Amino acid sequence: xxxxxxxVLQKAEVLIEALPYIQRFNRKIIVVKxxxxxxxxxxxxKNVIKDVTLLKLVGFKPIIVHGGGKEISRWVGKVGKESTFxxxxxxxxxxxxxxAEMVLNKVNKDLxxxxxxxxxxxxxxxxxxxxxxxxxxxxxxxxxxxxVGEITEVNPKVLYDLLEKDFLPIVAPVxxxxxxxxxxxxxxxxxxxxxxxxxxxxxxxLTDIEGIYKDFREKKGFISRISAAQAEELISGGYVGxxxxxxxxxxxxxxxxxxxxxxxxxxxxxxxxxxxxFTKQGxxxxxxxxxEAEQN
Amino acid sequence: xxxxxxxVLQKAEVLIEALPYIQRFNRKIIVVKxxxxxxxxxxxxKNVIKDVTLLKLVGFKPIIVHGGGKEISRWVGKVGKESTFxxxxxxxxxxxxxxAEMVLNKVNKDLxxxxxxxxxxxxxxxxxxxxxxxxxxxxxxxxxxxxVGEITEVNPKVLYDLLEKDFLPIVAPVxxxxxxxxxxxxxxxxxxxxxxxxxxxxxxxLTDIEGIYKDFREKKGFISRISAAQAEELISGGYVGxxxxxxxxxxxxxxxxxxxxxxxxxxxxxxxxxxxxFTKQGxxxxxxxxxEAEQN
Amino acid sequence: xxxxxxxVLQKAEVLIEALPYIQRFNRKIIVVKxxxxxxxxxxxxKNVIKDVTLLKLVGFKPIIVHGGGKEISRWVGKVGKESTFxxxxxxxxxxxxxxAEMVLNKVNKDLxxxxxxxxxxxxxxxxxxxxxxxxxxxxxxxxxxxxVGEITEVNPKVLYDLLEKDFLPIVAPVxxxxxxxxxxxxxxxxxxxxxxxxxxxxxxxLTDIEGIYKDFREKKGFISRISAAQAEELISGGYVGxxxxxxxxxxxxxxxxxxxxxxxxxxxxxxxxxxxxFTKQGxxxxxxxxxEAEQN
Amino acid sequence: xxxxxxxVLQKAEVLIEALPYIQRFNRKIIVVKxxxxxxxxxxxxKNVIKDVTLLKLVGFKPIIVHGGGKEISRWVGKVGKESTFxxxxxxxxxxxxxxAEMVLNKVNKDLxxxxxxxxxxxxxxxxxxxxxxxxxxxxxxxxxxxxVGEITEVNPKVLYDLLEKDFLPIVAPVxxxxxxxxxxxxxxxxxxxxxxxxxxxxxxxLTDIEGIYKDFREKKGFISRISAAQAEELISGGYVGxxxxxxxxxxxxxxxxxxxxxxxxxxxxxxxxxxxxFTKQGxxxxxxxxxEAEQN
Amino acid sequence: xxxxxxxVLQKAEVLIEALPYIQRFNRKIIVVKxxxxxxxxxxxxKNVIKDVTLLKLVGFKPIIVHGGGKEISRWVGKVGKESTFxxxxxxxxxxxxxxAEMVLNKVNKDLxxxxxxxxxxxxxxxxxxxxxxxxxxxxxxxxxxxxVGEITEVNPKVLYDLLEKDFLPIVAPVxxxxxxxxxxxxxxxxxxxxxxxxxxxxxxxLTDIEGIYKDFREKKGFISRISAAQAEELISGGYVGxxxxxxxxxxxxxxxxxxxxxxxxxxxxxxxxxxxxFTKQGxxxxxxxxxEAEQN
Amino acid sequence: xxxxxxxVLQKAEVLIEALPYIQRFNRKIIVVKxxxxxxxxxxxxKNVIKDVTLLKLVGFKPIIVHGGGKEISRWVGKVGKESTFxxxxxxxxxxxxxxAEMVLNKVNKDLxxxxxxxxxxxxxxxxxxxxxxxxxxxxxxxxxxxxVGEITEVNPKVLYDLLEKDFLPIVAPVxxxxxxxxxxxxxxxxxxxxxxxxxxxxxxxLTDIEGIYKDFREKKGFISRISAAQAEELISGGYVGxxxxxxxxxxxxxxxxxxxxxxxxxxxxxxxxxxxxFTKQGxxxxxxxxxEAEQN
Lengths: 296, 296, 296, 296, 296, 296
Hints:
The structure is a homohexamer.
Chain A: H1 2-24, E1 29-34, H2 37-40, H3 42-57, E2 61-66, H4 70-78, E3 85-86, E4 89-90, H5 94-117, E5 122-126, E6 133-140, E7 143-154, H6 157-164, E8 168-172, E9 174-176, E10 182-184, H7 187-197, E11 202-207, E12 212-215, E13 220-223, E14 225-227, H8 228-236, H9 244-256, E15 261-266, H10 272-278, E16 285-288, H11 290-295
Family (chains A, B, C, D, E, F): Belongs to the acetylglutamate kinase family. ArgB subfamily.
EC number (chains A, B, C, D, E, F): 2.7.2.8
InterPro entries (chains A, B, C, D, E, F): AceGlu_kinase-like_sf (IPR036393), AcgluKinase_fam (IPR004662), ArgB (IPR037528), Asp/Glu/Uridylate_kinase (IPR001048), Glu/AcGlu_kinase (IPR001057), NAGK-C (IPR041727)
């Protein structure tokens, strides 16, 4: 009985610990980039969706931007094609583009179902809807890699409308160029561009790493909090490589463009999003504005 | 010069002829079921989209509900499966459902692009978004045909929200059952259920036939206008068969449930939609309420 | 049958041709100055009203400003007075002012009836209502010509309120000075001042001429499109005379004060307004901003 | 000094006496029928306008309905016609109708000017605007008396819109029949029909009599307050005659149709309206609902 | 490290456990009666305020109704008076009423400060503000006990207005009778009357007992959940006595008048409110509608 | 009878005289500082409340800020304490602060009752509610005088919300510092700070003097109207002393910070507020902006 009461009181403490965070982010927009492992594992997937739904229910305005992950390669394989990559970017011919769009929209609607199942209203759109994402053709070191788009303009009206009507928007990273041709977009880029356009309070990347290390190769010197300027030093110092480089560039760009704070979270930890937002410890690495870094 | 002026005046007359129709349908909802030939031919496709866009611009509130047509079979074939049908309904196993949903969402976003290209804001959704279409498993003469759903409830809030925010909603006929399992839905059924739920002023089917004949087999006795009761007589008299039977049943059900008027149009005629709505002749067959039929 | 279908398809093309124009002027304000021949001929009058009503129905926000034309002289005559003019301006003593106001209000309400008959809600006001038009006494070359007013201020609130409530405002050119004395106003001046005050997208004059010629006297060198600067050159070159001079001055002033485009149309051509707005040819002369003239 | 202070305190008392009345009629609609002597005398006219303006400023929503009085006859005379009457109703041929409408609109705009001069926004309309008053031809004992209309329907939307936008609406009693033909309407009838349509709190007639007497001919037994039922008894008892009969019929009809209270005021007393509303004494005769009469 | 992560994950689970409750009570009104021990102990007081603030932040609409507790007696003593009670009700003469009102308002503003300190906007009112609580004199077994009021009418407009403007309303139980005389009100009665008037989703009493027992005297047979009917049986069976009797009567009355659920909580347990609402166990006794009791 | 009519007409004149003032202050905010004699005399108190209520009813937006006057000393005495003052400021230890707050809130609710009794909705708040008044500790010539606060920030949201919801706000001068400690505030300071924060049209002090004299000591040279600059000259010239000095400093500060006009009224004259606002004479002294003083 005593023990029960103790446990119960611990529960109360956790809820109370969340109080100031709920308060701070009330009605603020939080963009969540969702991809990687957190996407392939069914259990992790459920946790992510529960977390985002909770954010919605306690008064935040989350927006999910997702990738297609391994599903695209799987379906490209199904129709007997081979995936080729240049500098880590998928070479996207017409047929691959068709498949990529189909897969991304399928993932999109799967996420919609999962959110709806938890009793929250969601609408899944792509960058085509309401002209959300406008792109131009992207070249990789001058090489034509097909229908891979670079975002040139974000028209966030459709997102504001859906948020106003109390929907949770879920965005697939597909866009149109000025000729209304369809392009695939890197999901990190899309999340970052959207977060900047809506001046999000937070942009959170669910990744497959713990966060940023001073020395990435050796996994030494974990960094919990870093200013945009410091991140740029790390980059120019050559300490950041692989898929992390564009992501970190995105993060600093976001912070420099009105997003208050960017988080690189380990999507493999269940509820990493909730823990980052509602507890004192925090999880992963936060990239913050230079001024804020100085104040603390 | 004289000739030019005459031609110019004829133009004015056409515009003036449209005046009372624009007036009558101002701010009224019109559901357009779009499928069949009008979908496969690129030229016809452009015309349909132009027509619906014009309806939007002159003050109507159109909603497009579309099918996937031959594309689904094409993609099912691509992955090396064979399509099987029972009583004209596609047997939909898990993998087929995945492909069908992907194709429908792709068609959906293609239509969004085309509308956006004409300068009108569109948002493409499926019956999953905002819980629009709820279904239960459908059996064909008691036979299990897989994930084919029968609509049990329409929750039109997301449509009203999009219309209020001045978007043209485009709907793919996919829904969820109470266990949040995905189902394919017949597009005619979806269009009809939506038209009923939003009490549409008009429901227009773009089909591959001219309209209804008294004697379908012989294509004799074309009918321009028929009451719901008369349509039911035709059906019970055995004069209607093939794919037309469920469609006509849908039409009469719609008229009996608050939709003012249902049109069966020949989607192969360019701009059939505009001509039906804006000119005196009309095109195709109109199914009207019994009272209205009597009055005229 | 073939022929019928051809005719029907031509209709569709006319409607489709109107599409981009409907789009461009959606919710834009268009001020129509209505007077001259288009006013005296009953058939033309009906056409003008039909045109403006159509503009309203397809989403524009038209405002009609009208004159009193020959009716004022007719009623002045009826009470046994003679009309005298100085430099083309009616000398307006107290009794003439009373008659002019009565006639203008009568014309105003006649137009209201005609619009209402076409199913569109109209409200007829004069420059007195809501303090719309404030004037001061106007002199003609230093000569006292009675109660003829020059507009000193436009208070467009009543127009915005009526447009917001979905009425078509119809304005009679009568105003008050700072002593609340009634004055007659030239209808062209009133239309121009109102168009400027509400930053109208278009200001269209229905006149008794085809448009502007390089050489007015010889009716040589018809001009379809002219910049404000070019129009001013024409004027300073002495090529423009008669009633056209103040009108053209008004046009350039309007373009220089925020009205995007001014049209001088031949009100004797049926539906000249519709044809100008909804077809590629255009009709009459358009006065545009200098920058726009250069771009094209 | 003492005396001054006393006078000043009396002022305060008058204002305080008004307190409960201001409170009771806050945001209530009051229809004022304005005609007769109060209209011909310039001093009285100013007083009436001041009174109505004050009502507006302290939070009421007054609507003025006016007649044309002697002005119509004067202008009919000016064009050399003779006025003829049947049972007190002006025989209104086409030309007379034109003159009547012109005069009524002129009076209408004169009132607008006077209200505007006092710093309150007014809009003058007739029963044509926004389809306010719909009529059918009226016969006098079966005799054709021309374009004299009987109100068949009131569409008060334009009045509600103007009140919402904080204008004081001033209404000229002219309407349209179903063929959009113009008709003259008795101003008492118009005021009464409008008061009923907007469920006015009060309907006040400014007349040329002190109010109602038990014996009109002898001017004996002045009645300050009478129920609708008692008024009907007076009428059926033959005690009421002349122009008072239709007015009293109007009054009882108004009370029986949702107007809380009807006042017959002596328009020859300066500020009779204010005195009736803001002081304890009251002035003239009030016709009240039967229930209310019983309670007091 | 392992241990840390485990602890962190337990936190996540607590937050996730709260998810369905946050969802269920989103934008619902919860009335909290705050008094007794939870009020005298500073630590408990802080906890209660934290709890209510959290409810506000996660989207509920809490209203606090508080008593004055021992403070009133303390201040009565300070001025040298003695408190007398009849049947547990304080005999309230004029001076006592003055002191009681002053103390209640002081407690009220103290609570406002505490809520404001946590970053939530609060407004403290009494039943006088906006005419919230109207009372009549209450007699205790026919005995005059002074200015103790029984609620006759609740006018919840001021509460709705404050909630709409996002304030947390805090209510002191003082009201006015029809002569605008001030009366003291039992805080339980006030909470109950307010909960009924606003159709609260929940009404929670923070008390000094664990909840309801089948046998109160022996504290045997603790009841977690009881229907209104069962509660009434307990009462009529004589099992409920002391201060609990009127409280339980209040509870059943509330449930019978539109309040979905009433909770009797032990205010001595820290965060009892949070634990009741956000965890599966629940705490204290819930009184529910008879229908609901049957369903479960 | 003649006499009666004359009296009645005088009433009308008073009402008409108020017309332009009602017009000028329509929907303007007027802050009334209420204290001194006007507060202790029951008759005067009723008059003040009637006046403010009338202001509310005729369309103004009054806010009352009140002091506690002699009541605080009375209650301090009741509990056996002695009041001590330093430079006219009450030395406020913890217990005195408790009593002061209780008394101020009591006075606050008494005023609420009186306004409600007149049929106008009022809400009484203190500077704590909604964080209205933030203060810091005030020292008197370097001396610690306890919990006496100097206003550092006004957060007028709660006032705007109450005005929008049509309540008459009544404010007690109590505030919180950044540690959420309670402080007493001089009521004149509070009224002045609030008037500045809401950019009030008028700030009226009900005082115990006739107004300002050129020579206060001799009561010579009464000043009806003075500019801020002239008032500052009077002050620097040493002509103003006693309690008047801080008040006059407050007045000039208010005028220099957006309040159009400040009035020092003699609260001992019944209805001084009404007389000042609604009659030509005016009463007391008006402090106006320098520019305005020059214009007149």
